Amino acid sequence: MDVAAMNVRIMFQKNEMVSDAIGNHENVWTDYYSCHATVSDSLGKSSVESEAAGQTVAHPDISFTVRFCRKAKAVDTTGFRILWDGGIYDILKVDHLNNKKRALKFKCEKAGR
After folding, report:
1. Which CATH number belongs to the domain containing residue 10 in this structure?
2. Which of 103, 106, 79 is nearest to 92 (CA)?
3. Which of the residues in the chain have pLDDT under 70?
4. From start to end of the chain, where are the E strands?
5. Cα–Cα distance between 82 and 29 in angstroms, integer?
6. DSSP 3-state helix, strand, coil percentages of the chain (rounded to 5)?
7. Is 69 helix (H, G, I), strand (E, B) or coil?
8. CB neighbourhood size of 27 (10 A)
């Protein structure tokens, strides 16, 4: 694993239920864990943009690869999301990369908000 390629900082957010002073419940996103990651598109390239017919087109699905740790291992597809570069990304799949406990790969899709 090339640690030098992990050159972007991402933030994992967790969906939690909180209650206010009068007992109303609501879902909020709270910061869970921040770390460095490698960003690649669905084709495995390091750039998340490509040139198509003279226009720069952003890919809606990208992958983030992070080093293995207990907090990153606890991230799943239902209660977490990733913030990066001003965008919100929903986690579609978590790849444990052959269970070698060296890295985790999160396949994500840009949230349409």
Report:
1. 2.40.10.270
2. 106
3. 1-2, 42-59, 113
4. 8-19, 25-41, 49-52, 55-58, 61-67, 80-84, 87-95, 103-110
5. 11
6. 5, 60, 35
7. coil
8. 9
